[in-house]
Amino acid sequence: MVLGQGLTDLCTRFLLVYCGYKSFQSIETESWKDDAHWLTFWMLYAFFQFLEFFLDFIYSYILFEKIPFYYELKLGIFIYIGLCGGSKRFYEACGKKLIIASQNTVSQLGENENVKNMFSTVQNQQKNLQAQLQQTLNRDAK
Fold it and tell me: Structure pTM?
């Protein structure tokens, strides 16, 4: 590691704050082009984080600790997609094709009764937990 994980994490956090600020600025403008850039950036960022979590869950630390310059590469990817127009290039090259190809699957998943029941169950559990938390807070306040 050239920069080390700590410094690379700090740089990544700074980059994310900057990208969040730029996203806010783009929302305030009339142009849709900058909105599209930042939406694509955040979609790629979320996908990369999900992929990293999933792979880390399977392979533990081995995958990321053994890849030379992994954290520097990760920072470089975020800089490229956020500040150098990489999100637009990725979307034009393969992102749009992947999304269009998966539209039917995602639509069918959203219409699936089992998925709807699962979301309903999660919402009910959330409401129950919130009620229990409120009761506990009220009881502790007395």
Answer: 0.62
